[in-house]
Amino acid sequence: MAVIYNQIAEHARRGDKMLVRLIDPDKFDAGTLSEGFDYYFVGGSSASGCTDTVRAVHQACRTPVVLFPGSPKQFTPEADALLFLTLMNSRDPQLLIDPHVMSAGEVMASGIETIPMGYILVDGGRQSTTERLTGARPLPQTDIDGIVRLAQTAQLLGKQLVYLEAGSGAKNPVQEDVIRAVREAVQVPLIVGGGIRSVEQMNSAYRTGADIVVIGNYFEEHPEAIPEFMQR
Ligand code: 1GP
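# SN-glycerol-1-phosphate complex -> structure
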């Protein structure tokens, strides 16, 4: 059952903007978990498992938890859904299929809702952990045609979401012209994240076509700012 995906698609169709807090199992403070986000994404590029973090969120609030795994080791059937992601920039055949094959049996057996997602890394002004760990080259934000082609390819391959990622802790978030061009080129819901640190940056992403904005580091460092972002 595509419960969470259907919700996302319905919000996107109506133009309702969604705000997601990303929790990295390696660095999060359970005391800052609260209601009010549309979803929590849990995952990170480290090897840590996500089970305890998913439990902590479930204990703290009713917000659905969606796994955003950096590796198959981060899978846990306790989450409400799993982003089954493809790093569209990668040209490494092992990275493009091996982790999926490795986790397919366990994922299917768990019955968890899975959402196929095209994950597109763009240059956020500093080397991201994803780039460092995967060797995938982020596309420069001036290469709008290249970014659009990756997004179109993702949709044509059946991905139900496209995620434009500037990288965790990016200096420069995804730029307006990039978001706008991708929004015009694909119909699936669009996620934007990486380096967003202000309500203005969040609203700029929404205005230019993001359906979901994901914020991780800033909320970890400034949990007191969360209510202001929720009044989007
Ligand atoms: C990283 O896009 C997310 O995958 C969030 O990035 O931590 O920089 O908000 P930040």
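# post-check
Residues 3-230 form a domain with the TIM Barrel fold (CATH 3.20.20.390).
The beta strands are 18-23, 39-42, 65-67, 81-87, 113-121, 161-165, 190-193, 212-215.
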